Amino acid sequence: MLRYTWKRILTGILSLFVLVTVTFFLVRLIPGSPFRQGGVSEQVVETIEQEYGLNEPVLTQYFSYIGNVLRGDLGVSYQDPATRVTEIIARAWPVTASIGITALAVSVLLGTGLGILRAVTKRRFVRELISAGGMLAAGIPGFAAAILLLLVFSVKLKWLPASGLLSPAHYILPVTALSLYPAAMIARLVGNTLDSELQKDYVLFARAKGIGKWQIIFTHALKNAYLPVLNYIGPASASLLTGSFVIESIFTIPGLGREFVGSITNRDYTLILGLTVFMGAVVIIVNLLTDLLCAWLDPQTRRAYKKAGDSAK
């Protein structure tokens, strides 16, 4: 396991390095200058670019930026030189994370509950209703669900607020829009895998010993059935935690998504790169933790890595 952990960590670092490198050179391909706005003269633009080192060769800028990143310095925003990129991230990240964590919790709880119900119920109507609802939820794009929820519950019925995050009620619509697809996928995975687990010999043996159905499900079957679900929850949680740009734009939420869209519009190179580095790191860390958790929970995986380590010796 230790060998596997180090391998995954090194892979994550390499992935982040590639992401930063590709993003850096793609940003430099954006036409125009971040300072060429509002009728600023060419001489002033050149002076500002020289101050920020944008007149130097691209490779020089690249190595300088990588060195700053390794020291934890993501630079200052070109549009607001008095504000550092880390300050913008520190301000916007809690907003995005609060929505993402809430949506993740709702997705896991709702999806797991519906998946268990689909696997254990004897009523065909209930199984088909859950399957049909999951297909419908998974088939609706997030932005379409957000707009539909906004029109119905904010504009038409006026039950819920339409923008901002000023109260718990403001979370309901964006969290619902974000949760629909992952909840549907989790319900499908849990339902299919749990249904398969309940047919295995160890479950039949437990039933023969007189162990209750729900005890078998929550003590034995669900743990084994949840391994494929964890493989999905990892990337899904990373996506939710880094925010949905469209959802944040629709509900006017001051999170990372809005900052990222604004940075691209304004050609704010350092902010684009800083947000990319941060969100890439979050995605890599969440996926790493998920992989390690799956490897720890799966006995076959642990044995495989132990044998690999023994053979290497």
Outline of the structure:
This protein is an all-alpha fold and 313 residues long. Helix content is 78%, strand content 0%.
> How much strand content do the residues show?
under 5%
The total of helices stands at 13
The SSE order reads HHHHHHHHHHHHH
Question: What is the first-to-last residue Cα distance?
Answer: 14 Å
> Oligomeric form of this entry?
single chain
CATH top level? Mainly Alpha
CATH superfamily: MetI-like
Shape: flat
* The number of domains: 1
How many runs of DSSP E, i.e. beta strands? 0
Strand pairing plus helix content: what structural class? mainly alpha
- Gyration radius (Cα, Å) is 24 Å
Biggest sheet statistics: none
Rounded mean pLDDT score? 81
Low-confidence stretches: none
| CATH fold label | MetI-like fold
The assigned CATH architecture is Orthogonal Bundle
Helix content: over 70%
GO cellular component, one term: plasma membrane
Domain ABC transmembrane type-1: 93-290
Pfam families: BPD_transp_1, BPD_transp_1_N
Membrane topology: Multi-pass membrane protein
